[in-house]
Amino acid sequence: MLVSERKTWALNQEELGELMGVSPDAIRHYELGDRIPPLARSLAFEIVFGRPLAQLFPEALAEAASVLVDGAQNLSIEVEGKVDPASARKRTLLSAMNDRLGRIISLQ
Q: Alpha carbon of 59 to those of 26, 30, 66, 67, 89: distances in Å?
């Protein structure tokens, strides 16, 4: 997506790198998915192109989803069968997180 956005706006890697304050080589790595830019730079890409991070960096979304799935399984096991208010809230969070992740992935 990053490549197509750059090309849509008739930017080469050097120009985009200059705009973003990085080298053309860094842009190339971001486009290939070899590297995920730091959060502040990722947000800058979102501002420049007007696209959500999940669309601009699908590799980052896949990595985040993997981390969340593992963490959610652990938390789910921890609260399973518990009836206290904190555990109920955690189950609500897990359910909402799962719904959000599903919506984000379906937009890809």
A: 16, 10, 11, 13, 30
